[in-house]
Each structure stands twice: as structure tokens, then as C-alpha cells.
Amino acid sequence: MIDLDFPTLHGIGFKQHFVSQLAAAMPRHRLARVTSVQRDGFTLDDGRASFPARCARFVSTGQAVVGDWVLATPGQGDWWIDCTLDAFTRLSRRTPSGSQVLASNVDTALLLMGLDNDFNPRRMERCIALVRACGVEAVMVLTKPDIGSEVEGRSAQLRQRIPGDVPLLSLIPAQQLDTGVLAPWLGAGQTLVLLGSSGVGKSTLTNALTGSLQATGGTRHGDDRGRHTTTARSLHRCPGGACIIDTPGLRAWQPDADEDALARSFDDIAALADQCQFRDCRHESEPGCAVRDVVDADRLQNYRKLLRELRRAEQTALERIAERGKWKVLMKEAKQRGRDKRGG
Ligand SMILES: Nc1nc2c(ncn2[C@@H]2O[C@H](COP(=O)(O)OP(=O)(O)OP(=O)(O)O)[C@@H](O)[C@H]2O)c(=O)[nH]1
Ligand SMILES: [Zn+2]
Fold this sequence. Notes:
By secondary structure, the chain is α/β, with parallel strands linked by helices. The protein folds into three domains: 6-84, CATH 2.40.50.140; 90-246, P-loop containing nucleotide triphosphate hydrolases (Rossmann fold, 3-Layer(aba) Sandwich), CATH 3.40.50; 259-314, Ribonucleotide Reductase Protein R1, domain 1 (Orthogonal Bundle), CATH 1.10.40. The protein contains nine helices and 13 strands. It has helices at residues 6-10, 121-133, 151-161, 176-179, 202-210, 259-265, 267-273, 297-314, 317-343; strands at 30-38, 41-45, 50-55, 69-75, 78-84, 90-95, 98-104, 108-114, 137-143, 168-170, 191-195, 234-237, 243-246. The protein has a six-stranded mixed beta sheet with strand order 10-9-8-11-13-12, sandwiched between helices. Strands 1-2-3-5-4 form a five-stranded mixed β-barrel. The protein has a two-stranded antiparallel sheet with strand order 6-7. Helix 2 (121-133) crosses helix 6 (259-265) and helix 2 packs across helix 8. It is globular and about 85 Å long. The chain starts with 5 loop residues before the first helix and ends with a helix. Bound molecules: guanosine-5'-triphosphate and zinc ion. Residues 273, 276, 281, 283, 286, 289-291 line the site of zinc ion. Residues 212-233 are annotated as: Disordered.
């Protein structure tokens, strides 16, 4: 077992959860957290100092991501990561080739969306589903209230659409007074990740909360899109003892969820569906539907779309081929019927 300096480690997000995994740790081991990942190495922080490290040959480089806790040993003038501790949350998204872990050991995700042209309730619903499927608390943060349009209408529209237990805040990331509303999530030992499109204000908010100086960028004229100023994820410490993970703007938000996890982000639909006249109601044109007239039509459509994507992603390549084959047969039969009709 190694000596653990709890107050120091707590300042960089260490939790009781990891203690049982340290039974086999050797005195030569240094316990530290990954604060950034480069092509050929990592930056670690043990609460006292930040230092570079590399992955020991038997540990795969992709294994440790920002937010992970690792055990490193010294050797040949470098620090080497021996193992990664099991995380209590792994924030991931689905990608065409499987899934990608964005950050580890995160308590809260601040989902930033601009009240300018960035505003997009469907994307926010996706984002909430993605975060909740990973067991991370979602908090919605609307930025650019000073330059956005229809600010009040848009905020009210979102409040109506997103699950009631997701807090919704609005702030200007650069203003100290504004960022005070985030205090409930910034307790010592907490880790937050900032997610949102490029240019929405993630790095500006990181700077305001940590007092550090991340590069920030402007937005493009005309469409308010960002310039992808941040290119890698990185973990920063706040003076109050919380950690913030800044991320580059994401374009694709594919929840890495199963149907149950997705349904939990749309639990208003599931609850109402219990009252539909037909148990297999698709909430389209069936009589006695309890969902259609109550749930926002666009929200319902978005849920269906997410469900379709998820089912498709869960299909194996063979199932997809079989499905295509089934369609081909059906099309052929339909064509034949057409020909028969014309012929006879
Ligand atoms: N007026 C106004 N400008 C803002 C607000 N939030 C962010 N900005 C500006 O928007 C620009 C982009 O902000 P960043 O913090 O770099 O955005 P980002 O989300 O980190 O962008 P990427 O690093 O590209 O992912 C900067 O010029 C900020 O000053 C806001 O609430 N109001
Ligand atoms: Zn129905």
C-alpha cells in the first residue's frame, strides 16, 4: 500500500471509490491523475506537481484518458504509467468504429449552448441522453444571452423540452458574477466537464473558473460558428478544489446508450405512453394516444430518430445484410405484382 495524502489528492478529484484498488500498489508507485494526453505521452498531476509520463509497453496508450487515475513508476529518467484505476464514470460517445471515451471520473457535465445561431434543442436532447447514459449529471448552460436573439422565448422553450430534473442556467462565461451560479457543482473533489460546439464559450468559462489562461477564439462572421481553438481535452484545477475538463467543440453527439438508458432521458414520453389506449402505440395516428398532444412534436421525432440510430448501431453487419436482403425481396415482389396487374 502507498501513503495517501487525502487533502492534497482530494484537491484534484480523488475519491474513496479508488482506495480499494490501491491494495497492490508498491511504494515506488506515484498516484496521479491524467490532465492531458499528447500523441506520445501524458501530463499527470498528483495534487502537488504536474509532470510528464509515458505508457509502459504493456499498457495500451489509448487506455488512459483525461480524468483517469493512474499509478506511475520512475525509470530511465521518465515516469511510466503502469496501470489505470477503474473509473466511476466514463463519458463516451458512439463512433462509426465503436465508442470513444471523452473523459473519465466526471461528476457533472456542463452542456453549453449559445443563444445565438448555435441554439438547437435537438442537439441538446442528444447531449443530455449521451451524458446521462454514462451516469453523469447534466447541467444545461445557455451562453451569449447578451448577443443572442429571442433569449427569453428560447430559454422557456428549452425548459419545456428537457427533463425537469436537468438544471437550466444562463450566463456570460467571462463574467465572474455570472459564474457564481455554478457554485453548487464546484465543491472540492468534484470534476466537471464542459461540452458544446466550438465557439460556445467553454475555454472562456474554464478561464473564469480556474483563473488560468486557455486560448480562446472568436466566432466566424455570419453563422456564429467557432474556430476550433481548443484542439485537445485538458483538466484544470479551480481555486475552490473542483476540477474542470475543457474539451474541443464536438460535431457529432451519438449517445453510447441502450434503449433503457435512452428512455430515461425521455422519461416523460415513457410515463405518458403507459396511458395510451394501445400498448404498442407509436404515437402517430392511433386513437387514444396520450403522448402525441402533450409532448413537443419535435422532441418526439428526435426520440424516434435517436432510437432508430441506436437500433441500427446495435445491429451486427450480418443483420444489416439480412435486412437489406429482405427489402430486396419485398421490392422485387412489389415490382412483379405491378407487372402482373398491367399484364392481366
Ligand atoms: N458576447 C459574448 N461572447 C462570448 C460569450 N461566451 C463566449 N464568448 C466569446 O466567444 C468566443 C469563443 O469562446 P471560446 O471560449 O473560445 O469558445 P470554445 O467553446 O472554447 O471554442 P473551441 O475552443 O473552439 O471549442 C470568444 O471570443 C468569447 O469571448 C458570451 O456569453 N457573450
Ligand atoms: Zn400513444
